[in-house]
């Protein structure tokens, strides 16, 4: 099984464990704030399942109907996560509203807090793992899952402090107020996630540092060519698509120009992981600049 898929399956298992712990904490205490934390964990499980299927689909090779592959499936998963996060936040706001109007005393608050804290520690450890390997393997679905979990860790910390204050002070409305703050934080997280994922679906260019490296590689390894121009990049999940025009002497043979293209392409593949390179060779009259091998 693919290493990315194994991590996605791990997210499902961790999500179920954390959900069970947080829901048990809510049952013990009756706290709306802990309920909001548990509800977000339900979304964690749902999005982990969505990420698993998205990663699995993105690994399917290109076919006649999808000649550029299925890499964007991971962005669809991230958008779905954002939508589910927003739905969870609205549900929490509803519960916090009714809880503020009719507050209830907490049962066994300290036991519930200890269980919730244990769940948060598990989430924090798994979140760091997802961040590390999601970025290393350039998986939008894993990174989105990690960001969602980090939001959960941060909000859980706030919930633990708030519910602790409720237990100490007896101010029951604070429980509902904390839940509302959690919901607003979750809303912001969902919006950020959807905005970034939509950017991927709209074929945004590769990050500026990667584009700069691509220009450097082309310029350094294009010996024998006149110039390269019309460089374009886009990212689809883990894959970076690179396209440009390479200008060579009109008298150069196809074999000679192909040697230059192979040299550039091999270096790009070695330096830019999961890259797909398309080079269009043009004669010298198509040059836009002369001197060296500039990349325009």
Automatic annotation (TrEMBL):
Cellular localisation: Cell membrane
Keywords: Cell membrane, Membrane, Transmembrane, Transmembrane helix, Transport
Pfam families named among the record's database cross-references: Cation_efflux, ZT_dimer
Membrane topology: Multi-pass membrane protein
Keyword NAD: no
Transmembrane feature ranges: 12-35, 41-61, 73-93, 113-133, 153-171, 177-194
BP GO terms, sorted: intracellular zinc ion homeostasis
Family: Belongs to the cation diffusion facilitator (CDF) transporter (TC 2.A.4) family.
This protein's name: Protein p34
Native source species: Phyllobacterium myrsinacearum
